[in-house]
Amino acid sequence: MAPPRKETERMSRSSWIILAAAVLFAVEIVTSARANRTHEKHILGWLGVCGAIAALAIWRPGIDVLANAMGVYYPPSALFFLCCAALLVMVYRLSLGLAQEREKVRKLAQEIALLSVSRPDRD
Amino acid sequence: MDQPRPLAVLLALDEEACIAHTVREVKVALPDADVLVVDDGSSDDTAREALTAGAMVARHPINLGVSAAEATGLSYAHREGYSAVVRMDGDGQHDPVFASALLSAVRDGADLAVGTRFAELRSFESTALRRAGNAFLSSVVSALCGQKVTDPTSGFRAFSARGAAFFAGVHPHDYPEPESLLMAHRQGFRIREVPVRMRARTTGKSSLTPGRSAYYMVKTSLALTLELLRAR
Questions:
Q1: Which pLDDT score is estimated for A23?
Q2: Is A122 in a helix, a strand, or coil?
Q3: B98-155 confidence digits (pLDDT tens)
Q4: Could you write out the DSSP letters of every residue in B164-226?
Q5: Helix-strand-coil percent breakdown of chain B, rounded to 5?
């Protein structure tokens, strides 16, 4: 009879939950993509996030490796920092995208106004 | 097609109560000018009232703000080849009697003629907060432009064909007046101030509350700083 595996060698319950959440999130992203509710460049980014979450759920020591590489003593802090940084970049990119879309809407609305000028002697 | 006549651009948002009167006043003051009302997404009958009063009307399908409305008017003038543009508010605050003085300044060589409330003629008194804000912006814009600008927030202004062409393509965001002065200066445009009288609005109310006025000051200061960092 094989000896029982140590707790550190098996995936913990929380790891399974995080992995399941990452998989469900990935399914939601692909479903949205199938329905054309999102754009390829966003899909790739979000699937990358799902992959990173799943990888760290499966390979928990990866968090320690990251913390060591960053010179952070407490590994969860390193993970927290990376999450915050990633969210900051995403929100910044979204605000840039929003400003670009707003400019396009403005130009489109102005063009509509210019193409449909009403004149008192013709209307 | 080039139009030897000038274009009067009136910006309006929900001004059905007074836009017809303003259009008629402009037509009396500037009999040689065409009048274009830019309706910035009004929810009332502003467009129909303006049309009935004899103006051309360009309607934004959605509200885009003062700056975009001005740019639409200037774009129309540029595309139709008007010789000059005078821009006024549709609520009647800008006394059309002085529009011809602004256009004369353009004919005399200015690319941007700004109507000022603070020279010679007495206008209605705005709030102390706004006067203080205007004084602050006046000192900043005057220093940046290298010439005295007493009323940088005045929207009563006239553009030469060259000025209209430039501002039809590149325009500040939101409230455009102080930033466009700096842009004009950096383009080497000739800027002139012309004394005008402004009246209290007869209908509706200003969108600038004290809180928004303070925000406007901060935002405009930032916009002026950013303009200095941009390529000409």
A1: 95
A2: coil
A3: 999 999 999 999 999 999 988 765 666 667 777 777 888 888 888 888 888 899 889 9
A4: HHHHHHS--SSS-HHHHHHHHHHTT--EEEEE--B---SSS--S--HHHHHHHHHHHHHHHHH
A5: 45, 15, 40
| pLDDT confidence of residue B136 | 85
Q: For B154-213, write each residue's pLDDT tens digit.
A: 999 999 999 999 999 888 877 788 889 989 998 999 999 999 988 876 666 666 677 777
**ipTM > 0.85, yes or no:** no
B59/A110 Cβ within 8 A: no
Residues of chain B contacting residue A109, judged by C-beta atoms under 8 Å apart = 60-62, 64, 68
What's the distance, Cα to Cα, between the start and end of chain A in Å? 94
- A114/B51 CB distance under 8 A: no
Reduced to 3 states (helix: H, G, I; strand: E, B; else coil), residue B231 is: coil
Residues B37 and B58: beta-carbon distance below 8 Å: yes
Closest listed residue to residue A94, CA positions, set A46, A51, A34, A30: A46
Instruction: Determine contact: A2 vs chain B, CB below 8 A.
Output: no
| Separation CA B77–CA B60 (nearest Å) | 16
Q: How far is CA B48 from CA A11, B13, B85, B106, B201, in A?
A: 71, 13, 23, 31, 21
Min distance A41 CA to chain B CA atoms (Å): 28
Beta bridge partners of A102: none
